[in-house]
Amino acid sequence: MQQTQTHYRSCPFCEATCGLEVETRADAIVSVRGDKRDPFSRGFICPKAYGLKELYHDEDRLRRPMRRTASGWQEVAWDDAYDEIADRLLAIRERHGNDAIGMYTGNPVVHDLGALLYRPVFQRALDSRSLFNSSAIDTLPKIVQTGLMFGRPFPTAVPVPDIDRTDYLLIIGANPVVSHGSLMTMPDAPGRLKGVRQRGGKLVVIDPRRSETAALADEHHFIRPGTDALLLLAMVHTLFDEARIDLGAARDRVAGLDQVREVAARFTPEDVAERCGIAPADIRRLARELASARSAACYGRLGTCVQEFGTLATWGCDLVNILTGNLDRPGGVMFATPAVPVDAALPPGKGIEIGRWRSRVGNQPEVGGLIPSSTMAEEILTEGDGQVRAMVLLMTNPLRSAANSAQLEQAFRKLELLVAVDFYLNETTRHADFILPTPSAAEHEHYDVGLYCLAVRNVAKWSEAVRPAPDGSPHTWEVLANLGARLMGLRDVPVADVDALVLQQYAAAAVERNQRWQDLTADEIVAKLEGGIGPERVVEMLLRVGPYGDGFGRNPDGLTLERLKAQPHGIDLGPLEPRLDQVLNTESGKIELAPQLMLDDVERLASRARAGGNGLLLIGRRDLRSTNSFTHNLPALVKGPDRCTLHIHPSDADRLRIEPGSRARVSSRVGTVEAPVEITTDLMPGVVSLPHGWGHDADGTRLRTASEHAGVNTNLLTDDQLYDTASGTAVLFGTPVEIEPAESKGAEA
Ligand code: SF4
Fold first, then answer.
1. CB-ligand 1 contact for 11 (6 Å cutoff)
2. In the chain, what are the domain boundaries?
């Protein structure tokens, strides 16, 4: 009889980092449960956690590298794949320059420590300006806003609601009951949200949909998509108008207050009410409640980012927090103090850089080295110097996640070389020349370097690999190091030597940022970590120089990786603490309340109110059992009724003669899909909703479960040319569409 072993790790399927207790027997995962002794999640999990087992066992998951040949896919040895890919990339670089090779990174990277820490290494080897990632689909406004206001690179200066202590929580364009929080790492979102009310606080939700979070709230208001910035600036207007400004901890640390006052003067509640769909009296009352609550937090997420005024909306959220004295105080919005400070690993410098160069075709500014992902197709399709001719994909399926998928698919078909680091043959990787599958989450160790920067409580946890990677299968960091070394002409250098260089670079950056131990040197760090390898060693280094670390012996009771591993359920490092002084890194040394980029975009906000052909706007919808498109290939996460349905309000359905249970044809400027209809009063009239990540009916994939639950791809409708001007983020929520009954019109276009 084989022995059962128990392992502890954090869940890799969303940002909440729930603790898992995973039992294995021989080479099988036999159970996945919530870890009751995890101090952060206390046993909470959602149905997606079970996906760890299904993903590990999924027979569709690739385990050997694949090369496209004239007769189909063929397995290839890892070294041969590295060599051939590098040769072809170098030849393209030689002929067309560095920017001809693009890279696109998906959000699963945040759950793969090796990918997270070694992607920068590979990108340095690539030395290309054609860098795109999933943050440039849904997070750029937040990156721009926090970078300009607080002066640090994402995610080191994103204030998160101190949800366990707040007395008033205003949620705009987010559905944490289902998403479990985004840019707000918090296990047990439903319990924590209920907790606000149970201790006498108030929860208010603003959303075009009466979402699962709205169902828990004291109050919900529908809002017209794309008008959050109007609402928030009208709330700011009220704060000034009624002399309710109280900067609290930000007193004497803000610049631009008068400019904000001038901007807000233009947006009275009465002026914006009709466009937002919220009564002036309610707008004023919400502002008063935020200002008068003992503590309060305004939290906006996807809905405030992926819209036409995403940067202004995210700006408005933090303006409201700062002007009501709720920044950096318990119960307000606060900055986490991560045990592994990721900014220690970033090049030192003030704030983020924006607009050092512009995209070749669309003239979009880079943001911290990223080009808006909506420009990817035009950069590939438009001929000329700098045209992207090869792409490297890291854990992503952009043909289902990026705007205007049909155009992007056309672009990907034109590439001279497409390389995908991915374990599925999906709708995007089916176009690849090489697929390099790295192990699933259960097969690698992990530390949530990025997500703990956004946690609502300071915690640290080392995640065990619950099963070893398949024989001979490299981890993601090794794949990136091998390819990067070849691009730098270090083909024959062993990966351990490449890794030593990587550690040296990380150590030098960490020492430069280190304020605590002036005598600590990179050479000492490297010497003391000799014998280790890979991302685990980098985490150990960052942990030991971090705020709770042992300083390589200088603080004997401090954290080391060994001590962290000795606590397999994780360590609670306490509630969030005020730390504005440590975070602020702007040139003025103050919070920049009125960055020029935002001021320049105000006129556009004042003048624009967008509507579709028959007045309908399409928004997305998050589902409890779905995160990335790959979760659709896991049986436990797709069973039950079809979830990829078009939601429409009864008044719109009546007007358009859409029958319950029928199919509707949805058309935008760029495409058309047909979807089954659900008529519901949970949606604002004039707004329709389709979830994203579906559309698994493409030929040439190996996603047997997903193809039985294909759904439709909502990004056939989203428009790459409709974007938030300030950040370049494509509008995914608020696409103008027309809807008509599908029956008599034939198949999907
Ligand atoms: S809430 Fe997120 S982290 Fe927690 S179990 Fe579900 S998917 Fe995993």
1. yes
2. 1-57, 66-139+354-436, 159-339+579-604, 610-745
